Amino acid sequence: MATRALIITSSILAENGQSNALANRFIEQANARDNIEVTQRDVVKNALPHLDINELGAWQLAATERNAEQQSLAARSETLLAELRANDVLVIAVPMYNLGIPSQLKAWFDRVLRAGETFRYTENGPQGLVEGKRAIILAARGGQYAGTEMDSQTPHLKAMLGLMGIKDTHVVYAEGLNMGEQHRDAALKEAFQAIDQLVEGL
Ligand SMILES: Cc1cc2nc3c(=O)[nH]c(=O)nc-3n(C[C@H](O)[C@H](O)[C@H](O)COP(=O)(O)O)c2cc1C
User: Fold this and answer.
1) CATH number, residue 39
2) Residue 98 sits in which domain range?
3) Where does the pLDDT of residue 1 fall: very low under 50, low under 70, confident under 90, or very high at 90 and above?
4) Whose CA is nearest to atom 30 of ligand 1?
């Protein structure tokens, strides 16, 4: 059976986005194999609004009790949850913006990180409900932050994935992309090689 990969892209720079270049490399390599099916969701092109009280309220109602507006609000999250559940591997292509993730990507996480759906609270703390999936993070950054205290992005992403139960997460970094052409080319080359290896292992 084919491995299904959901790739989330989140650069605001469209075809000039370096994280999109990493995502495209993944897609290109995956499409060259017949055992991987890729679904792409661009959370910038299909941007979600900030989560608000009306949408949260719609989740709290039984489907039969929702009015038309509440149904369409609840459908946002339901569509994304179904897409997540239908895939085996979650690939997140993420630029670093102001030391964090793009707010559009946070809006996606706000729709899939739902108590009672993807995790639940128990006496022993939260328990992830998403089983048997792994994640790959493709991280593009202008500077160099991996492994330093300034990198709050990777721990944040791993914590959100871990909360859902996705604990097998691999990070590919393309760092120092704004530190000169030579540096950028070397970082991208290394990241592409890492992506090729990961796709081969799927
Ligand atoms: C609004 C904005 C904020 C940024 N903040 C950071 C930052 O905090 N740290 C960093 O290393 N690079 C930062 N950068 C540089 C990006 O991480 C870098 O250009 C990377 O290639 C962005 O990925 P993208 O090209 O896929 O959008 C920032 C870029 C933009 C546009």
Assistant:
1) 3.40.50.360
2) 3-200
3) confident
4) 97
